[in-house]
Design a protein that fits this description.
By secondary structure, the protein is α/β, with parallel strands linked by helices. The protein is 30% helix and 21% strand. The structure holds D-xylitol-5-phosphate and zinc ion.
Length: 223
């Protein structure tokens, strides 16, 4: 079962309530919330205050992507948003195992994020403890980038690594996910798709119901 996670950073920030109504109508499965600190990535985006407002407005589950250095400092700040998932980058925290424990302690499912250049062994020893792997298909930080095709091989290898160990975490892909990139990525093993500017956030007149359906249809082409 494929899940669509709409990247709320790409929505119209002056009109978030209307955007959430449109995303609910389009039946997206999650809201992907990029938190950026200007240090791990050269951009700034979304903090706990706005995410708490979003939580209060909609029942769509939140998937918080911490693109920050030392994410362990911020995990408790996001407890009030009651997200389903919080992801941290493997190389952004000194003690990954402890950081994943902190996420679990606030009742949230922990996720490890890997940049296109981060090798899979970075998560080998925590794979059995996480609910999802966030495989970045662009370097994090900005919408509108080009898909890194070498990541397809990594997704396939990750899926095999999970099978061999009897594990079945969700595999989320983030960055330039659209009807061209979805079929090979899903064939490789991805099952959570972040929808950003390249698939659904195409302005006020965009029909989110149709665009989300197109994403789901592009998956059917491969099965
Ligand atoms: C990149 C972000 C993505 C991005 C997706 O750091 O995590 O969520 O905004 O948008 P597009 O589809 O433009 O790549
Ligand atoms: Zn993201």
């Amino acid at each position: 079962m494929i899940k669509i996670a709409a990247s709320i950073m790409c929505a119209n920030q002056l009109n978030l309530a209307r955007e959430l109504d449109r995303l609910e109508a389009a039946r997206v499965d999650m809201l992907h919330c990029d938190v950026m600190d200007g240090s791990y990535v050269a951009n700034l985006a979304m903090g706990p205050y706005v995410l708490e407002e979003i939580r209060a407005y909609t029942s769509i589950p939140l998937d918080i992507h911490l693109a920050v250095v030392e994410p362990e400092k911020y995990i408790k700040l996001f407890a009030g948003c009651k997200p389903e998932f919080i992801s941290v980058h493997a190389e952004a925290t000194r003690h990954l195992h402890r950081t994943l424990d902190m996420i679990r302690e606030i009742g949230v499912k922990p996720v490890v994020a890997l940049n296109p250049s981060t090798p899979l062994p970075a998560l080998r020893h925590v794979l059995h403890e996480i609910d999802m792997v966030l495989v970045m298909t662009v370097d994090p930080g900005f919408a509108g980038q080009k898909f890194v095709t070498s990541v397809l091989h990594k997704i396939r290898t990750l899926r095999e690594m999970c099978w061999e160990r009897g594990l079945n975490p969700l595999i989320e892909i983030d960055g330039n996910i659209n009807s061209q990139t979805i079929p090979p990525a899903v064939a490789a093993g991805a099952n959570v798709l972040v929808a950003g500017t390249s698939s659904i956030f195409k302005g006020e007149d965009a029909d989110y119901v149709l665009l989300v359906q197109q994403m789901r249809d592009s998956v059917k082409k491969i099965s």
